[in-house]
Amino acid sequence: MPDPDLEPISPVEAVEMYHDAMVDELAESTRKSNKHRLRAFIQFCDEEEIENLNDLTGRDLYKYRIWRREGNGDGREPIKKVTLKGQLATLRSFLKFAGEIDSVKPDLYEQLSLPAMKGGEDVSESTLDPERALDILEYLEKSQPGSRDHIIIALLWETGGRTGAIRGLDLQDLDLDGDHPRFSGPAVHFVHRPETGTPLKNQKSGTRWNRISEKTAAFIEDYIEFHRPDVTDDHGRDPLLTSEYGRVAGNTYRRTLYRVTRPCWRGEECPHDRDLDECEATHLDHASKCPSARSPHDVRSGRVTYYRREDVPRKIVQERLNASEDILDRHYDRRSNREQAEQRSDFLPDV
Q1: Cβ neighbours around 73 below 10 Å, total
Q2: Residues whose CB is less than 8 angstroms from the CB of residue 147 and which lie 6 or more positions away in sequence, other chains included
Q3: Which of 14, 50, 211, 269 is the most exposed place for a label (fewest CB within 10 A)?
Q4: Which residues are bridge partners to 63 per DSSP?
Q5: The domain at 11-111 falls in which architecture?
Q6: CATH 1.10.150.130 residue spans of the chain
Q7: pLDDT value at position 75?
């Protein structure tokens, strides 16, 4: 029997209320990720004929965990532990909210345990090696100077910014002449604007100026003058990076990175011994299937690794990339243990 203190509600309606409530608390990219993750929970409720969320029990949550871990019971491959942890963490957040609106028992979320992660299991080892990043930039400077692809890679690399921060740049956010009183050179201004579709991950605390090189500033000027479609976005703003339809979509950045990080794209030999005439990754829609293809996140981790190799102070890296020291160490620094030991020895007296 459901608790009489609870108010009947369908799983679908409760999830929709959760999404509405999170608008003021989470970045748009996080909300989209949560929405995707909770679709599986709604599917589970349909299969288990749970029409009233009041009826949800701890045993149901255990069954959901197994069902999700094994591929939703539809014959698909089991999902990775780190993926499962993310899925269940989102569900816990939803259940805590559901308890606050009298849809489930207030402490039900505590009955959904998260899988324990061994050291490093929740950290991706993928990165764009700094040397590769610089080679790709050099190639773009010679073959496609001032192109949109060139500016995307240059800004991701130089600023270490997240895709959402780069995407949110408007023409008014540029100081390409270095006239800003706080800087002695060109810079870009990352601004949190959730009301017009370009929030920053860390919201207002993510608003900041980042220096860029004079060379990159000159290439941006060329892009604006010769390559940028002169359009506004849906909110009447003037985006820096545009398509003929307006502000460039977030997925464009990922597709761009997949494309330009393939060695064959620059005319190099395939390091994976593939026949280029038969390799599906040579087609733009399947570029991500190249083992060498990298994502925007990998550019960010490569930049952190570059900073650490150059002994840039941690505080400077934290402020420039708008991330905590723990996050930088766990998710972005890709120096080998030997590299880190060698750099530490530079600051230690001889034994």
Answers
A1: 13
A2: 140, 223, 227
A3: 269
A4: none
A5: Orthogonal Bundle (1.10)
A6: 11-111
A7: 54
Average pLDDT by stretches of 10, the chain with 351 residues: 78 93 77 86 92 93 90 66 84 93 91 68 63 93 96 93 94 88 82 92 87 93 97 96 94 93 92 89 89 88 77 72 59 47 44 41
Q: What pLDDT was estimated at residue 310?
A: 67
What is residue 31's predicted lDDT score, i.e. its pLDDT? 80
The CA distance from 303 to 320, in Å, is: 11
The three-point CA angle 336-338-344 to 5° equals 105
Predicted confidence at residue 247, as pLDDT, reads: 96
CATH of 130-301, one of 1.10.287, 1.10.443, 3.30.450, 2.40.128: 1.10.443
Which tokens go with 296?
A: 């925007």
Q: Which two tokens stand for residue 273?
A: 């011994």
Q: Provide DSSP, 113-145.
A: PPPP--TTTTS------HHHHHHHHHHHHHHST
Q: In angstroms, rounded to a whole number, what is the distance separating the alpha carbons of residues 346 and 241?
A: 42
Evaluate whether 309 touches 148 at the Cβ level (below 8 Å). Answer: no
The amino acid at 292: S
In 3D space, the residue among 326, 323, 256 whose CA is nearest the CA of residue 294 turns out to be 256
Show the beta-strand stretches assigned E in the chain: 174-175, 187-190, 208-211, 242-243, 246-247
DSSP 218: H
Nearest one of 314, 327, 39, 348 to 202, comparing CA atoms: 327
